[in-house]
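Batch job 17 of 40 flagged for manual review because the log was empty.
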Amino acid sequence: MKKHTLKYFIILILTFVVIITQSCDDTLTSTDVDNLVMPDSNVSYGKHVAPVFEVKCVPCHNSQRSEAGLDLSSWVNATRDPTIIFPGSDSTSILVYSIERIPPYAPMPPNEWLKRNHINGIRTWIREGAQNN
């Protein structure tokens, strides 16, 4: 009887460990980002823009693989070139032309469209000064 009790207790503990470990996973998924709603104003880099960049852009635009010389893996890297992201002016930021898929700039991401909500949020963030907030 005691052997079975110990066995079930160990199984119960292991189950809790698995559940707790899985609930602590902070990895963003495409579904997480697809469900992210951008506000109409006061767009935060950390809460709104960075998650979209991390899932949709950083796989190709990072410090190891900076396609077209662009690294969007951090605020510092993303805002380094004012032609890519021109704080205060979304209409002169090349990033906007790429995510809006306006020629002659390469459409980004190449195999999918960003959600209109995300594009509008990124544009608002840039218009609001592209702050690290």
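Reviewer: the log was empty due to a logging misconfiguration, but the result itself is present. The first helix runs from residue 2 to 23. Unflagging and moving on to job 18.
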